[in-house]
């Protein structure tokens, strides 16, 4: 597996201008759209859709790969099943073999509509273009193409790959005694790409904050310092089953369907509800079901195999129901690999040239391959974190836009009030305890973490009630 990274680095000239990389099929977005998308479920001739069910100009990887298989009758194994083979292509002769032209050595010089199609299909060409842009390339329309709402996250992914590539190539040159001018050129490109990456991440963050603020989700309200509201909330948390039953009954009285009042106790339950309600465009296909059933070792093999592919990735790993497991497994794999990659941590790729440890040529080659795999796993983990953030935002926006949201809030407020009426002794005990921290009537200034104070109060409430009536969360 590691050798494929070494060959990949040589084949694409490490994002340079070498045309020796294996040619990609010459595809257009309109052609790929003639088939249904296995990732988002978009029908034939329909655009791909984001998780938030919005049309996007970016083609999903699964749609592109499926089209290539069908159009050219290729027997392309899935990335996790594809063995690493190194063999020369068979000689071809005769007319009409024009489907696989040599890759353009400088793709950023293509007409903009052709460039848009190329970066849809080829991640490595996207990495070339974002690198050239970071190093000073100016062209009308290029900034919007690379960093518009549809493609900014893909460009961040490409910049991450390019930054690691430049760093590892520079390290190898330094440790093997390369030419100083070549080393300085790589260092300058690495700094430019790193700066562009940070600026683009800040740009994405500003876009996210603006959208969530416009939807009323941000800024998050500060924890209440009203002792009355806090006592009411802690009473509801102490009696969760009774509170949920009240919410269901009150919501039903407002005309809400029973499914809308089901209490969500885990992230997978929340994601499944959003998919079932049509809030997320994420079909649960057979490939997703198979991935969810994999044991730990098979799942790890799957993510490492995916890391070996930049242009043909494993789309099922990006499914909302798989994302958290993917991120956690990537973190575990990185922690296990860190010593052999000579990286002191799993936060980022540190500079290997800061150490003066001597190494032989064979050791350098092995270390180079190991660090490339480590770097691409870091890249994948960053991708998974961005996808998880986007998923959480999408679910929050969908819930806010659903008509049941305000009705459920009203039912919840009424349920808390009813709990106070039913259990005045418990409510009064919580209020009396909080009164010690009041700076004035109804206003708190707690001297200890809320969780610790709440746990102590719950212990006292349990002592006030018979054992069989203790809070379900405390039994």
UniProtKB/TrEMBL annotation:
Origin: domain of life: Bacteria
Annotated region (Disordered), positions in chain: 83-102
Protein name: CHAD domain-containing protein
Organism of this sequence: Streptomyces thinghirensis
Taxonomy of the source species: Bacteria, Bacillati, Actinomycetota, Actinomycetes, Kitasatosporales
């Amino acid at each position: 597996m590691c050798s494929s990274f070494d060959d990949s680095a040589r084949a694409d000239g490490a994002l340079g201008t070498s045309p020796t990389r294996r040619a990609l099929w010459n595809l257009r977005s309109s052609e790929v759209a003639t088939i249904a998308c296995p990732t988002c479920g978009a029908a034939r001739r329909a655009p791909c859709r984001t998780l938030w069910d919005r049309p996007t100009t970016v083609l999903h990887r699964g749609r592109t790969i499926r089209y290539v298989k069908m159009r050219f009758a290729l027997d392309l194994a899935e990335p996790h099943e594809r063995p690493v083979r190194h063999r020369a292509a068979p000689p071809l002769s005769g007319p009409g073999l024009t489907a696989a032209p040599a890759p353009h050595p400088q793709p950023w010089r293509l007409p903009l509509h052709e460039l848009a199609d190329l970066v849809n299909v080829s991640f490595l060409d996207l990495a070339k273009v974002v690198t050239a842009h970071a190093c000073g390339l100016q062209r009308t329309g290029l900034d919007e193409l690379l960093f518009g709402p549809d493609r900014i996250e893909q460009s961040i992914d490409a910049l991450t790959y390019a930054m690691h590539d430049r760093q590892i190539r520079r390290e190898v040159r330094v440790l093997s005694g390369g030419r100083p001018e070549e080393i300085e050129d790589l260092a300058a490109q690495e700094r430019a790409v790193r700066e562009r990456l940070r600026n683009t991440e800040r740009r994405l963050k500003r876009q996210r904050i603006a959208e969530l603020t416009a939807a009323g989700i941000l800024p998050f309200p500060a924890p209440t310092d009203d002792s009355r509201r806090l006592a009411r909330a802690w009473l509801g948390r102490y009696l969760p089953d009774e509170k949920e039953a009240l919410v269901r009954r009150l919501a039903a009285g407002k005309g809400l369907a029973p499914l809308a009042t089901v209490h969500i106790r885990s992230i997978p339950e929340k994601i499944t509800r959003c998919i079932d309600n049509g809030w997320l465009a994420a079909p649960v296909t057979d490939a997703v079901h198979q991935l969810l059933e994999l044991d730990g070792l098979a799942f790890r093999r799957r993510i490492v195999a995916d890391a070996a592919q930049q242009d043909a990735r494993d789309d099922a790993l990006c499914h909302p129901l798989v994302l958290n497991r993917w991120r956690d497994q990537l973190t575990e794999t990185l922690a296990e690999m860190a010593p052999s990659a000579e990286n002191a941590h799993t936060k980022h790729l540190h500079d290997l040239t800061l150490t003066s440890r001597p190494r032989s040529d064979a050791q350098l080659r092995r270390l180079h391959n190991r660090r490339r795999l480590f770097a691409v796993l870091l890249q994948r983990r960053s991708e998974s974190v961005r996808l998880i953030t986007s998923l959480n935002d999408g679910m929050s926006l969908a819930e806010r836009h659903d008509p049941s949201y305000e009705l459920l809030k009203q039912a919840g407020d009424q349920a808390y009030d009813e709990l106070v009426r039913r259990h005045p002794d418990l409510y009064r005990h919580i209020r009396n305890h909080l009164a010690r921290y009041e700076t004035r009537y109804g206003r708190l200034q707690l001297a200890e973490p809320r969780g610790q104070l709440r746990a102590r109060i719950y212990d006292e409430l349990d002592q006030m009630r018979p054992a069989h009536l203790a809070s379900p969360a405390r039994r």
